[in-house]
Write a sequence for this structure.
């Protein structure tokens, strides 16, 4: 089945230790998104890629970076995680030609010790 | 930017009854309105959506209505079942971005 896959599902890191979360998709969608979702809140968009074009939200901290080496993969790098970065990180994809439906992966739960 | 308000924040219904969740949006340029269901520890799952050129859409026990003039849209779930218990998010799409409501926690009592 075509899908959005996120690895790992659970990630524990130490305060200040860089961490990378990964997302892959078999949908061949040209748009990929990263969201942060804290407990009992709605997902908050961090940035997105339209093909290779990177688009950062104005309020996304510099601590968060992203890479998209090819259509299928996208990575979220947190350079120096703080306690406030503990959250669920969601990857989503969409196709501009497909009517803007966004399909989410299962998420990575990040814990910062 | 777009602002989406969602009510109620919590909803408890008896199994078999209907559940209704309402959302309003602020930007008349928004043209696509999806609803997501999120179960504990999982990613949001698209359950139904509606575009701005349609007033109502139904898929089995789920229906969505859209009033563009009033800028509000609603999710209706009929004959609720325990597996409908989850958090539901409405969203409005504008340009490249989905703006989400704050979510409604639905509990279906057996």
């Amino acid at each position: 089945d075509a899908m959005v896959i996120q690895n790992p599902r659970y990630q524990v890191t130490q305060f200040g230790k860089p961490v990378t979360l990964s997302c892959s998709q078999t949908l061949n969608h040209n748009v990929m998104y990263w969201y942060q979702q804290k407990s009992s809140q709605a997902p908050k968009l961090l940035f997105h890629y339209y093909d290779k074009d990177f688009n950062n939200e104005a309020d996304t901290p510099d601590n968060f970076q992203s890479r998209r080496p090819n259509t299928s993969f996208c990575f979220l790098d947190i350079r120096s995680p703080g306690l406030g970065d503990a959250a669920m990180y969601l990857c989503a994809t969409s196709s501009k030609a497909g009517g803007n439906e966004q399909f989410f992966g299962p998420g990575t739960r990040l814990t910062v010790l | 930017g777009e602002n989406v308000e969602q009510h109620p924040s919590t909803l408890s219904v008896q199994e078999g009854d209907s559940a209704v969740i309402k959302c309003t949006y602020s930007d008349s340029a928004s043209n696509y309105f999806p609803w997501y269901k999120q179960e504990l520890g999982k990613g949001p799952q698209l359950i139904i959506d509606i575009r701005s050129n349609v007033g109502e859409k139904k898929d089995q026990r789920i229906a969505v209505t859209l009033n563009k003039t009033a800028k509000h849209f609603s999710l209706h779930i009929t004959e609720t079942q325990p597996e409908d218990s989850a958090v539901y998010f409405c969203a409005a799409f504008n340009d490249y971005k989905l703006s989400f409501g704050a979510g409604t926690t639905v509990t279906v009592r057996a």
